[in-house]
Amino acid sequence: MFDIEKRESIKTLILTLWKRDNEPPTRSEEVALSNAVSLYIERLSSENIVPSFNTFYEFVGGEYRTILEAKQVREKDFDVANFLNVLEPYYRGGEYDYLLNSEKQLDLLSKRFIVFELDNIKDHKILFPIVTIIVMETFINKMRRLKGIRKMILIEEAWKAIAKEGMAEYIKYLFKTVRKFFGEAIVVTQEVDDIIASPIVKESIINNSDCKILLDQRKYMNKFDSISAKPCSFRWEHRYWQATKPSIGTTNCCPMGRPFKTAMPSSMAPR
After folding, report:
1. DSSP 8-state assignment for residue 25
2. What's the pLDDT score for residue 265?
3. Number of structural domains, the chain?
C-alpha cells in the first residue's frame, strides 16, 4: 500500500542517494522526483511490474524522460542524465545493487521485537543513511497500522543518525505524533553534549518528552551552565541536579501531571 507517507519516504530515500548533505535539492528537482515516484507507483498498479529500484531506474531513464521532454522541462530544472549517473551504483550490476532490489518479502509488520544493529556501518557514508531511513520507515509503518497495540522505538547511542539533516523531519514527526498512535519513542545517550548541542533534540525530543531520566552526572557538573539557555523544563532540571546528591539518579517523569519526585525545596519547584 503506497499512501502519502510511503511515497514521501521513497522520495526521501532517493534524495538521500542522489544528493549530499550539503547539497539540498531545488524546488524543481523535488517536484520532478515526486512526479516520477507517483507515476511509477501508478504503473505498478496498472502493469505487471516488480517494485524495485531497478524498475524505477528504468522507468526514469525511459518513459519518464520522454514525459519530461514533452513538457519541455529544462535540464537545469531536472537533469535526468545526472540523476541516472549518480544512482547507477544502486542499479543492476552496480556496487550497491543488492540494497534496494531484494526479491525477499519480509513481513516486519507482524514481528513483535526487531533489533537493527548499526555499529558496523555507522561510519559508512552510503549504507548508514539508507539503512537509517529504512529503520524509521519500518517503525512509522508499524506505528500507524497496528491499532490498539503498544509500540515502542528505542534509539540507543544513535545521535549520529538523528543529527543528519535528512533525518530531522522523521524525528520531528515521530516525537510529535507517536503518542497519538499508542506508541513511545525513547532515546539513550551517555553524553550530555548530545542533548545540549543538537537542534533536532532541542526542538523535537526535549519539548515532546514528558519523561526524562538522568543518571550519575558528576563528571558533567561543569557543563550545566550551558543548559541555562535551553527550554524552561531544562532550566528547572539544572537547578534540580544541583540540589540533589550527584551520585543519585533523578527523574522528571509526570504521568497524569503528578511528578514522581516530591521531596524538593519549594524554591526549586518549576514556575
Report:
1. P
2. 39
3. 3
CA neighbours closer than 13 Å in the CB half-sphere of residue 76: 0
What pLDDT, in 10s, does the model give residues 6-33? 888 899 889 989 998 778 899 999 999 9
> Each residue of 22-41: b (16+ CB within 10 Å) or e?
eeeeeeebeebbebbbeebb
> Does the residue 216 lie in any domain?
no
Of 32, 54, 56, nearest in space to 44 by CA: 56
CATH number at residue 162: 3.40.50.300
Distance CA 181, CA 149 (A): 9
The mean pLDDT of the chain is 78
CA distance 179 to 185: 9
Dihedral sign, Cα of residue 214, residue 218, residue 219, residue 224: positive
Instruction: Please check whether residues 101 and 128 belong to one and the same domain.
Output: no
Residue percentage of the chain with pLDDT more than 70: 70
Angle made by CA atoms 131, 41, 146, in degrees to the nearest 5: 60
pLDDT of 264 above 50: no
